[in-house]
Amino acid sequence: MCHSATATPATDLPRGLAARTLRSTTLILALALLLPAAGCAAATPAPGAPAPADSDAAATASEPGEASPRAGDADAPAPALDQGRDGLHRQRPEIPADRPLRAAFLVIDGVYNTELMAPYDIFHHTPFHTDPAPGIEVFTVSPDGEPIVTFEGLTLVPHHSFADAPAADILVVASAEGSMGADLENEEMIAWVRKAGREARWVVSLCDGAFVLAEAGLLDDHAATTFPKDYDAFAQRFPGVDLRINVSFVHDDKLLTSQGGVRSYDVAMYMVDLLYGEEVARRVGSGLLIPWPMNRDLHPPYTVVIDPQPVED
């Protein structure tokens, strides 16, 4: 918000100071007339900095379906995606009318709070805004159903174990402390993720949760992304995955992979929009003070390759 200065009346000041104040006030008024044309707090690009894109260009650059850089590229963008598969995100998939969608969240020791709770929070709020559709029912699953401790020290009591977890429409795999190491050697966990992921209609990973999905073979021959600092490690370990970089998230078929961190909210809000429409997503976001649709000037772009089971609205 712009604030205008209020000058001290010149009559209350010494003559010399009053004259200077009058000149300053005149200058302030002149600037006030000019500022609305320039916009509030308009920044001047530093020498050598690229000129800001106009609104149309910015929207185009951030549109889903635009090619995103691939790991290994230098400065050139990736070739355009298959145009015959773009734009399907605008067609909502069919969802059950008589029951909620079930979202299973894998929880293990060392899971990171943000990547776990961002999508959990978003999905949990959907039933309050999707009437007459039932919304999304969320639940947590740990290997043995016993309490787990997050990386930040919170103790969580899961709803289910691998043995008794119900079938999930949405599988969510958040990043954990061991996602790039010990967790990939946990054969029981990888086997469960593989089975649950194959049976789910959508699979979502946050941050290095993409390593777990890739280890389970769910990302083979698909586009995906992960935490930016781990691009190289991911590309080396999983050369069969089409790694996309510098994007908030990637949606390829039934797979949605996110950079993680605060960007975990982006992919969750996108899923709500995909499933229930922009107005429901806007209402969910409003209750959490998350603007929707995303401000494309403040968020990195995202990539949509193809959507699951597209149908006409």
What is shown here, in short?
With 313 residues, this protein is α/β, with parallel strands linked by helices.
Helix content: 25-40%
CATH class placement of the domain at 98-306: Alpha Beta
Order of helices and strands: HHEHEEEEEHEHEHEEEHHE
The CATH topology of the domain at 98-306 turns out to be: Rossmann fold
The CATH architecture of the domain at 98-306 is 3-Layer(aba) Sandwich
- Mean pLDDT equals 78
Strand order of the largest sheet: 5-2-1-6-7-11-10-12
Work out the strand percent. Answer: 5-15%
Please tell me what the overall shape is.
globular
Q: Helix/strand-derived class?
A: alpha/beta
Taking all Cα atoms into account, the compactness measure Rg is 25 Å
Mind describing the biggest β-sheet? 8 strands, mixed
CATH evolutionary superfamily of the domain at 98-306:
Class I glutamine amidotransferase (GATase) domain
CA distance, first residue to last residue: 40 Å
Explain how this protein is built.
This protein has helices at residues 15-38, 55-62, 113-125, 187-199, 209-215, 231-237, 264-276, 278-287, and strands spanning 101-106, 136-142, 148-149, 155-156, 160-161, 170-173, 202-206, 223-224, 242-243, 249-252, 255-258, 303-306. It is of the alpha/beta class and 313 residues long. The protein has a domain at 98-306: Rossmann fold (3-Layer(aba) Sandwich), CATH 3.40.50.880. Helix 3 links the parallel strand 1 (101-106) and strand 2. The radius of gyration is 25 Å and the shape is globular. The model is unreliable at 1-67, 74-89 and 307-313 (pLDDT under 50).
